[in-house]
């Protein structure tokens, strides 16, 4: 049963997977099946750390259309497709007889369900082991952060605005995974009255919210292109504008690096309460434990600064 309630008959051990939701590729890689991705919608130019960590992805066919060519998928020998819950491709792929698993997630709880579902479908004991360890780490991180920020009253918690794009100006509202990690890290989403991801807003609306902290999405664009009135914001004047890290997938979006995102956000909002948190070390450990990849400290620093891998690296 996939994440939308569809019953799907899958191969016991799918060998050639079409991973057609940007965020899900990271789950497949984390669960040890990067070499089984035959078709992907994550391309090297957009996800350089993904290809650095999982070089087997270079053998996959890259697609850019939200509804890929079904003949190409069949010719590629694809025996299973993962798509988002709202994917327009699901119906056409099912029509040609391809097993389609909708494995989208919208919050921490459904992320864990998607990880477990993917491990079930991959059919490997090792995938189940990673899924169990991941659940334990995410649960422990949530509790670690909760205990540290619990003494802070709701009224004292900073109002945080997450900006997905500066041009055009879009932000993330309530009932999103972004809203959840802001709240769990001890903040309040400044985009009150707004629901959903990547919602267009005016600079006048942002000025009315006047957030205490602004977090710029990893691909939000050059801050020098910010609209007129940006410099007058409370967060800008106080020097509390922060660039969100981006690694295998942007930490702030819908990916498995969420434990790192929670820690980074909590430390950013409350440096005194998280003095013991070294984000370089935390990043190195996570990549070792869940991507089987040994980052160098300089690599981790680049990820934390939302920078691409250094030229000539591994």
From TrEMBL:
A Pfam short name: Peripla_BP_2
Protein name: ABC-type Fe3+ transport system periplasmic component
Domain of life of the organism encoding this protein: Bacteria
UniProt-listed InterPro entries: ABC_Transporter_SBP, ABC_transptr_periplasmic_BD
Record-linked SUPFAM superfamilies: Helical backbone' metal receptor
Origin species: Gluconacetobacter diazotrophicus (strain ATCC 49037 / DSM 5601 / CCUG 37298 / CIP 103539 / LMG 7603 / PAl5)
Domain Fe/B12 periplasmic-binding: 16-273
Gene: feuA
